[in-house]
Amino acid sequence: MDEETNVMQELIDVMERIDMKFDDIMFANVVLNGSDKIKAFLPPGWQDADMDCFKSQLIRMGNYNSGYGCQTLYGTIVFKNSAWLERGEYDGAEWWELKKMPSWKQVKAIG
Length: 111
What we know:
The chain is α+β, with helices and mostly antiparallel strands and 111 residues long. The chain is built from 3 helices and 7 strands.
């Protein structure tokens, strides 16, 4: 099943659901594979021009097929609160997945 998803709008929607904004991003790297490989990179300590370039590249990526098949979009977006988004994938279906740094109490309680 083909599911056309806009890269920028998908990221905006996910960040709204987790109550994050672009200014909350610490650094990021998003890559759209395909015939025209496009990379959106945001370095640590980014300046306004870096963020403008990052958003511009996300917009340039346009739509991709997020349904089953081959994974197309890769990346990690790390937030200032130590949470991050990474791409989840199963059998070619893909999505942004929120990850959170565990506390020491959670780590210590394992096993």
